[in-house]
Amino acid sequence: xxxxxxxxxxxxxxxxxxxxxxxxxxxxxxxxxxxxxxxxxxxxxxxxxxxxxxxxxxxxxxxxxxxxxxxxxxxxxxxxxxxxxxxxxxxxxxxxxxxxxxxxxxxxxxxxxxxxxxxxxxxxxxxxxxxxxxxxxxxxxxxxxxxxxxxxxxxxxxxxxxxxxxxxxxxxxxxxxxxxxxxxxxxxxxxxxxxxxxxxxxxxxxxxxxxxxxxxxxxxxxxxxxxxxxxxxxxxxxxxxx
Length: 242
Description:
Mean pLDDT: 86
Low-confidence stretches: 6-31, 233-242
Order of helices and strands: HEEEEEEHEHHEH
Helix content: 10-25%
Distance between the termini: 25 Å
Strand order of the largest sheet: 6-5-4-1-7-8
Radius of gyration: 19 Å
Number of strands: 8
Structural class: alpha+beta
CATH topology: C8orf32 fold
CATH superfamily: Protein N-terminal glutamine amidohydrolase, alpha beta roll
CATH class: Alpha Beta
Strand content: 5-15%
Shape: globular
């Protein structure tokens, strides 16, 4: 993904004044319980031990998939590479390490890993977030995705979801998208060799594209993705500082 601009993404809508809060007890002000993560065993090592190169999220996720395949701890078919983009390639995400405060980072695309767990909730693996790693799906949705309804239409997000086994077989990148017009790297590339297949040395655009007629996997709007894989909980607490 390219080096992102930063800043607020306006909804273009006037925000109504908040109604006065009714008097309530201290017990009523208590936050809802946070979902427990103790029962879930992470599929990959702690974040610092994972293969990671800034601004090469597609390769970071490929490496996570490759690690999961090698360990046989979970069935590989439970995992999906998730590309986030749109037709304009302008997608805001919150709680990113390259962000500042509560302002979003606007990427041209981003890639995360989804674990469709056999447990009570699904999990997101994002090496670029300040949220927990892994992060419960609903927490990531509330904190990092937020709502398309609050954004201008040109910032609405779409999802391309590709099974991890298929991603490992088909993805290829020569990293040329990270070079400027003079052939210089915008960000240093990974130190390991480029990922390629017998059929391709570079097909990244086919994964970033949100045209369902090209590439691999399934494409749908972000709200459909959240509805399908979230638990539809109503909590919206902050994980600031965790």
